[in-house]
Target: DUF6801 domain-containing protein
Amino acid sequence: MRATGRGAGARRAARPARVAAATATALMLGLLTGTGSQADEDSPTTADLAYACRFPDSTGAPATTVDARVEVTTRLPGSAVPGSPIDAGTVEVAAHLPRAATSALFPDAREVSGSAALGVDVRQNKDRTRADWSLVTAGTELPAQGAELVLPSSGKVPTITVNSAGRVLLLGGEARFVLQPDVGAPVSLACSPAPGREPRVAEIAVPEDAAVPEDTRPASPGGDHSSGPAAREEAREDDVTLSPQEDEPAVSWPDECDDMPTGELDTSVSAPPPPYHFNPIPLDGVPMCAYAVGISTVRKQNGSMLINDPSGKPALMRVRGVVRSDLGDWGAEPGSEGFNQIWSLAEIHLPDARASFLSFGYLPVTASVTFETGKVTILTGQPHMNDPTSAFARIVFQQSLRLHDVVVNGTPLDVGPSCRTAKSFRVLLNGDMNSKENPYVNVFSGGLLTGKVTIPAFTGCGTAGENLNGLFTAAISGPDNELRMNQAPTCVTGDFPSGCPPVVPELPRLRPTSS
Model:
């Protein structure tokens, strides 16, 4: 992640990468999918894989590529039969990283824990599919000395079912790893298989003459999937099936992902108040993109509308990641407590939203809303390096709303082309790095963002001399309108792509309304 240094100055220089980590890359890889019947827990096999992990420097920007060794232990039978789920049992992954390269990640921590998301490429004949797994990294003590840091992870993984004969190959793919030190902010890492070496996790034979046992044969549609003496555990939603299909196209991502936005940051959301001493470091930024979807609640209407509806054609957020890094201290004296901040710039052109409400509690009103959104500033940091709970994430932008295509009680209402908020309003969203359910560690990892906005009065509403400004101001304008957004992990392009193509996240859940 960055060069290792000695003394307080070097530790402070390393701190921002803990928060920005994302560009980083981390180890992990292990996953698998298994073969024919239940795996034999007493016959584990281990694959030793080579990975390349990209570590950021002290500013949080991508810098050093570090070689990693990942041992993936599975419990797979040597052969399988078509139509029978392949169960890998409990998967164990031990990621080995050079200790010198990782010491700057956690300069003050004694232990780390976390989780991993692994991908495995499953191939048979010309068919292929992808399996995604989640593993847990138990608390691991950080060695004070030694040549390497070993991070063990384990977990039960979904099964894989093949429907034809032929050798099945399991190849390790991209791995993401989120580490939570006992002191400091979480670190998000990602790794990719090292070039030139096949990341083979396992190989399973599926013979032509393999018979499907009666007690393991898949149930017919609508049948009882739990019947039979050899029935396995209840099927998981992420179990996958490899069926004959056309070759998948090469992985690609939208052209917008390489087109980084330009503009000025809104530095008014900076956390540490003066007086403090810091050194802002301007950076070129990293090309990235991500989808962000959400729900906006109009308090006066006690209703909500979808923002960037994932079921339609959601807009992609373009990101210039890590355009500035702030290193600082709370005092001028040597050794005073430090802080760090990482800034990113984003841009998104949201599609129109369609909303329906019972205006004033009885009158059905439907309208389309156009969003005019300014440049987005994304800030993550930790103002008190000795207190991990002080870590924060803040996203801020200016926005205006325009109403059109209004229908009142089934009758169109001509509001004209300029029915809009009289001025733009500030949107400030916050992410919780320490959340156990949906943390927002940084722009690279994404997560849940929440906030409340005050919608200004409306102007320009009505035609032919009719003034409808008061109607919409009374029905919509005011404070405490909640906005909840889920940002997916970013697709990082460039010479070391990660997380591509970008994925569309689920909508965030609405919080229960208080009585």
In short: The radius of gyration is 26 Å.
